[in-house]
Amino acid sequence: MTMKLYGFWRSLATYRVRTALALKGVHTEDISINLLQGGQFSEEFKAVNPQSVVPALVIDDGPPLFQSMAILEYLEETYPQPALLPRDARGRARVRGLAQIAVADGHPIIAPRVRSYLETELHLDEAARNRWCAHWMGKALEAIEGHLANAPETGRFCHGDTPTMADICMASQVIGATNYFKCDTAGLPTVMRVFRACMAIDAFDRSQPLKQPDAPRNPAH
Q1: Which of 130, 100, 104, 103 lies closest to 115 in space, CA to CA?
Q2: Which value, in Å, is the radius of gyration of the alpha carbons in the chain?
Q3: Is there a contact between 68 and 13 (Cβ–Cβ < 8 Å)?
Q4: Which residues lie below 8 Å from residue 32, measured CB to CB, with a gap of 6+?
Q5: What is the pTM of this model?
Q6: What is the dihedral of CA 58, 59, 60, 62, to 10 degrees?
Q7: How far apart are CA 78 and CA 93, in angstroms?
Q8: Could you report the per-residue pLDDT of 176-217, keeping only the tens digit for each?
Q9: Does domain 3-82 have CATH number 3.30.1490.20?
Q10: Which of 11, 59, 129, 156 is deepest in the core (most CB within 10 A)?
Q11: Contact of 64 with 56, CB cutoff 8 Å
Q12: CATH 1.20.1300.10 fits 89-206, yes or no
């Protein structure tokens, strides 16, 4: 079986898939689509994903898989160990809910196509655009903190003492908030404690955007 992962170094959605693959020991051929130079709009990539977003995962030249959460669910079903979802239905619902705060609420409104619209159509300058991104990324992390703090299900990680999809998605949100938009994390003690536990794991650490081969030395927003 061969797998090709279409992504980009700074893509938080690609980070999520990259981390899950690393945790499960699945190797892929990585193909960089430069979002900052418009590579996602090429006809070649549109044939992979007509939405012109990353990541996309192609297995044995079959139909591409798209959207990071769908890919994570696929990996969980086809490579069940180590498990990234709890065994009980209520636990799985909690993990998916925490993941969706980052993936569905926080991340989409700071994606490149949104930032581009803010600049080109609403004429926000860079400082205003970055305040927008920092605000919404921070709000998502505050919501996750509210669910994690003092919850009996919270352990070393978001749910128990082994990493789950919730940790992968939360970590992507923290990386974007802190590395790209310099958000204040002082009010997020539980989130940051769990984040540090995640980054102590090699799969989380080596999947970081700035540790990818196509990452520049001095990234811009």
Answers
A1: 130
A2: 17
A3: yes
A4: 7, 8, 9, 39, 213, 214
A5: 0.93
A6: -70
A7: 20
A8: 999 888 889 999 999 999 999 999 999 999 999 999 999 987
A9: no
A10: 11
A11: yes
A12: no
As a three-state string, the secondary structure of the chain is: CCEEEEECCCCHHHHHHHHHHHHHCCCCEEEECCHHHCHHHCHHHHCCCCCCCCCEEEECCCCCEECHHHHHHHHHHHCCCCCCCCCCHHHHHHHHHHHHHHHHHHCHHHCHHHHHHHHHCCCCCHHHHHHHHHHHHHHHHHHHHHHHCCCCCECCCCCECCCCHHHHHHHHHHHHHHHHCCCCCCCCHHHHHHHHHHHCCHHHHHCCHHHCCCCCCCCCC
Per-domain residue ranges for the chain? 3-82, 89-206
Cβ 5 vs Cβ 57: under 8 Å: yes
